[in-house]
Amino acid sequence: MRLTDQRRLIAHVLSEAEDHPDVFELHRRVVAQCPHVALATVYRTVRRLEAEGILERHEFRDGHARYEPASKTHHDHLIDLETGNVVEFRNAEIERLQAEIARRLGYRLVSHRLELYALPVPVIPRSDEDRS
User: Fold this and answer.
1) What's the whole-number average pLDDT of the chain?
2) Are 86 and 66 contained in the same domain?
């Protein structure tokens, strides 16, 4: 893949992202640094990076494909349904349970994707009586 200046900038912006931006958000960030990058260029570059295995695509129920750099280590996602924030996590017990379930059903687990959709638990202020 020939790395043009625009593709390099798009890849750099993605590598710096601490969230999972969709193409529109990625374009907004790229244009902040180089105003002449077209949305179509971002779409084409993202598709190409995905095809090359450099990016992973996720669809978290919000109707937009979101992207993150392909990870060498497995992780799962918790999606905050109020804010759309995506929290990455790893949990050895969940991994063990998934492999065990597959084994009990007569399979060897080779891959999986876990997405948890959640709402924040409201914080209820304590009254003065509760504090004593």
Assistant:
1) 89
2) no
72 — pLDDT class (breaks 50, 70, 90): confident
pLDDT of residue 26: 95
From residue 116, how far is each of 63, 65, 79, 119 by CA, in Å?
16, 17, 6, 10
Domain membership flag for residue 131: no
Whether residue 79 sits in one domain with residue 58: no
pTM here is: 0.70
Indicate whether 52 and 10 sit together in one domain: yes
Q: In terms of Cα–Cα distance, which of 56, 45, 51, 58 is closest to 12?
A: 45
Q: Which domain holds residue 64?
A: 1-70
